[in-house]
Amino acid sequence: MISELANRPVLLFFVSFAVLWLAARLAAAYARRRAKDEDVHKDFDIVLGGTLTLLGLIIGFNMLSAVTRYDQRKNYEEEEANAIGTEYLRADFLPAAERAKVRELMKAYTDKRVLYYTTDPELRNDATAAAARLQGEMWSAIVPPANAQPTPVMALVVSGMNDVVNTQGYAQAAFWNRIPDGAWALMMAVAICSNVLIGYNVRDRRGGRELLLILPLVASLSFVLIADVDSPRRGFIHVNPQNLEALAESFRMPSPK
């Protein structure tokens, strides 16, 4: 449930805002029925301050975690483009027939890797399957000349192809690496407790209803930003495959004579 909401930042905003606002309103309604106790109120302020501080720390920690994961996805996209570009150049060490075949396969492979970053699930799934097939074909193309000429230069070609395969796996793992449900549950639980305390605290203040909107709104916007940065496919913030696109474009340019 929580992971599904985290994949839909806009829906997360409305759900979290409604839950937090309702918690604050119910607490305020309950508090109005109870008599005030000044001694208890002094202790209450300490609890409220500590809970709000904890909420701020948890939100900040999860925001940092989401940004770190986003940067990781960007870095792996750059590394993958560099690995493909390097191996494309190392293909010069292959015999003419294998060189042409490997380069054509790498051009097609780069186009499929660009499509992997699209938000269209059908295109992404097809591109992933095609990239896996092309990996096998590229590897099969370099094995015969590598076996025929087991030289240090040919070892560079094999190592480069291995980097191409590995960086694709790293990029895939980075897309799977998300903020765990437990962290979302803890953040939501502390936010609910904070709003309950806020609702209890504003029971006798004028304009209390308007005041009850502030923390739910701020917390919900924070949740949306965290979910948007952490979600690779949904929302408004995505990793654009700029390096892979530039590489694919360079492959389409005519070779200098």
Core attributes:
single chain, mainly alpha, elongated
Please provide a written account of the structure:
The protein is mainly alpha-helical and 257 residues long. It has one domain (2-252). It contains ten helices and no strands. α3 packs parallel to α10 (242-252). It is elongated, with a radius of gyration of 27 Å. The model has no long low-confidence stretch (mean pLDDT 87).
Mind sketching the topology for me?
Elements: H1 2-6, H2 9-31, H3 38-90, H4 96-116, H5 121-148, H6 152-176, H7 181-201, H8 208-211, H9 214-230, H10 242-252
Helix pairs in contact: 2-7, 2-9, 3-6, 3-7, 3-9, 3-10, 4-5, 4-10, 5-6
- The overall pLDDT, averaged over residues, is 87
Number of helices: 10
| Strand coverage percent | under 5%
Number of strands: 0
Q: What does this entry show, briefly?
A:
The protein has helices at 2-6, 9-31, 38-90, 96-116, 121-148, 152-176, 181-201, 208-211, 214-230, 242-252.
